Amino acid sequence: MPQASGGADRQAVEFEGRRLVLSHLSKVLFPATGLTKAAALDYYARIAPVLLPHTAGRPASFVRAPEGPGGQRWYAKNPPPGMPEWVPVAEIASSEGPAPHVMVDDAATLLAMANLGAWEVHVPQWTVAAGPQAHDRLVLDLDPGPGAGLPECCRIAEALREELAADGLTAQPVVSGSKGMHLYVRLVPAGEEAVRGYARRLAGRLESRHPRRATATMAKAARSGKVFIDWSQNASAKTTAAPYTLRLLDAPRVAAPVTWEEVAGCRDARALWFTPAQVLDRVARGGDPLEVPAEPAALP
């Protein structure tokens, strides 16, 4: 944690030249494991170097839950009350007019937002600088239906990897920290319609080749025993849980990049569920799997 002063439950800290007052540090956010707010803030302070490259420059939204997963939670796009004035904000166009969004461009901002109970960080597939019609990545969200789980998502991820490679695209896997996983593909910037259209066709291609294991249909009734390939994450208005963000489940888990070797070996979901401490250890030992060079490629 940053250098601090004050009582055990409330501390004023200097972090990256910014002053923060961290509060309720002894509060237990995750009763199942006893993880406190102080420990969760420490995780974000330490994981920031590998998390920030995936959020910087993108307008952020958050799942806020000041009392942890057992309390009230809500999806928040607008900056929260009590936010430090130095937190960077960008005006983003919407159907209701321009709206301010926090930019998680630095570790001090990440810590400030978490201190306000914004535990999950979500970002779109485009940057503010380029605009919502210049998507620089494609994301496929693999969501298991009833009777399927993370191992089934891994098998579909492997099939998608092959299809993407045949189209000249390189996929990188990230377990979502919840039920399923995400596949990221770096792109030469392309318009929303082109990216979303390609993702939808790809999902349909997988459904036609693996009709008993995969579906591209939004209807939940079609998902039993199958993995839903959510291509809609590529709409400009949609956001995805950022790599390395905490997820608000009963036990703390993280959206964690993994290797294709780990995906191939997954036969039990628990093998790819990672706690904050485990993720910090993985990064200390092996770095960020998403740092492996993957040159942006153009859509076919």
From TrEMBL:
A molecular-function term among this protein's GO annotations: DNA ligase (ATP) activity
Keyword field: Ligase
Claim: Ligase is one of the keywords in the record: yes
Broad enzyme group: ligase
Enzyme Commission number(s): 6.5.1.1
InterPro entries: LigD_pol_dom, NHEJ_LigD
Keyword Ligase: yes
Listed transmembrane segments: none
Domain DNA ligase D polymerase: residue ranges: 36-289
Classification via PANTHER family: BIFUNCTIONAL NON-HOMOLOGOUS END JOINING PROTEIN LIGD
The protein, known as: Non-homologous end-joining DNA ligase
